[in-house]
Amino acid sequence: MAVQQYQDLIAWQRAMDLAETVYRFSQGFPQDKRFGLTNQIRRAAVSIASNIAEGQGRGQPADFGRFLGISNGSRQEVETQAILAYRLGFVSDANLQNLLSITSEVGRLLSGLRKSVG
């Protein structure tokens, strides 16, 4: 059975979970980072699920695959920014490891989905 809506995709569902986690993860960042790192990591996290939805909505496998690649790039951007937040002392190691675990899962799902659409 083919996917009818992007909301049915496990990759999209977990990417939404990741976005929620990133919002919580970045809540404790210093106030003066609100328009810098906080905004950047949140935008990148939202971009993951958004690109999955947009790509699926295009209705063309090649387009969908391209948007999944963009989603994966945003996922790696989130990882990089999370590691920087940890290195700057904004979050604990436990919070970082939790976030990286979710980004890793989303990466595996994106990879599998990309292979399945050609």
Write a short abstract of this structure.
The protein has helices spanning 10-26, 34-58, 61-87, 93-117. With 118 residues, the chain is mainly α. Helix 3 (61-87) packs antiparallel against helix 4.
Sequence-ordered SSE layout with sheet pairings:
Elements: H1 10-26, H2 34-58, H3 61-87, H4 93-117
Helix pairs in contact: 1-2, 1-4, 2-3, 3-4
> Which geometry do the CA atoms define?
elongated
| DSSP summary: helix tally | 4
Average pLDDT works out at 94
Low-confidence stretches: none
Helix/strand/pairing class, anyone?
Answer: mainly alpha
Proportion in β-strands: under 5%
Rg (CA only): 15 Å
In sequence order, what are the helices and strands, one letter per element? Answer: HHHH
- Give the fraction of residues assigned to helices: over 70%
Number of beta strands: 0
Q: What distance separates the N and C termini? A: 16 Å
Largest sheet, if any? Answer: none
Offer a few descriptive terms.
mainly alpha
Description:
Helix 1 packs antiparallel against helix 2 (34-58), helix 1 runs antiparallel to helix 4 (93-117) and helix 3 (61-87) packs antiparallel against helix 4 (93-117). The radius of gyration is 15 Å and the shape is elongated. 80% of the residues lie in helices and 0% in strands. With 118 residues, it is an all-alpha fold. It starts with 9 loop residues before the first helix and ends with a helix.
